[in-house]
């Protein structure tokens, strides 16, 4: 019985977001400006940052206050309707994106 799974997935996603939001209010989160590393605590660690491909490497992390999207990285997709043309590169800002999990649940039958 797969009919209930999209609804269970959406409610679990909502519960996860609420839980992480509550934890962020209790525990300070630091995120590095130069890489995807996240630190939970008042001050970040002094370990070397390896940065992204084109950025300067082997330097100290630049810690800023983090948030929900640093802990739970959003993966978004374009929501295409049946028989809709493919979205071309130059059109990518003309269409809304939705979280990929939400789109999969919608395709599986959730409203």
UniProtKB/TrEMBL annotation:
GO terms for molecular function: RNA binding. Pfam families: APO_RNA-bind (PF05634). InterPro entries: APO_dom (IPR023342). Residues 31-111 form the APO domain. It comes from the Eukaryota. This is APO_RNA-bind domain-containing protein. PROSITE patterns: APO. It comes from Cephalotus follicularis (Albany pitcher plant).
């Amino acid at each position: 019985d797969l009919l209930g799974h999209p609804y269970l997935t959406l409610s679990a996603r909502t519960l996860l977001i609420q839980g992480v939001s509550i934890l962020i209010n209790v525990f300070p989160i630091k995120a590095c400006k130069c890489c995807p590393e996240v630190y939970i605590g008042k001050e970040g660690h002094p370990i070397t940052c390896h940065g992204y491909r084109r950025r300067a490497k082997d330097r100290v992390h630049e810690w800023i206050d983090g948030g929900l999207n640093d802990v739970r990285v959003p993966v978004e997709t374009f929501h295409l309707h049946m028989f809709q043309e493919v979205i071309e590169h130059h059109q990518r800002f003309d269409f809304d994106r939705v979280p990929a999990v939400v789109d999969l649940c919608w395709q599986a039958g959730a409203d």
